[in-house]
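Hi R.,

Here's the chain you asked about this morning:
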Amino acid sequence: MVNLSPFGSPARSVAMGVLAGGALVWSGVVVAGQFLGIGTAATQKITIVKENRTFAHGYLGTNVVCPKGQRAISGGYAYNGDHDLRTPVTVEVNAPGRTSDDPDAIANAWNFFVLNNKNKTITIELHVICTPIDNDLPGSGS
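And here is the predicted structure, written out as tokens:
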């Protein structure tokens, strides 16, 4: 098999992709903060909530919730187990959500819907990035 990776091995390519993805997420948070008029003081109030969840074979929906009084501005996941194209782990939903049934409520959580094709239970690290609710921000309900 011919290795087409510019980084020498598939593992190095994955590592480079993870680093690049992390940089893009963080830069997106910073740009979003500037776009929304959130200055340095508010950026320093960012909270990252990380939780490990186990997923048996099949589908599972879950979420990670911001601390009270905060809104979700980003989120994501990390699966650090074995990667196999024959039995992939697929995250079908990775999006903002809310714990309230009110459709106008502020997104205070990050939702995930995971398909585990492996014949074993796996662990995925899930996270949500939160910032204080500020009545001056778009979508704050004021």
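One quick note: The mean pLDDT is 80.

Cheers,
M.
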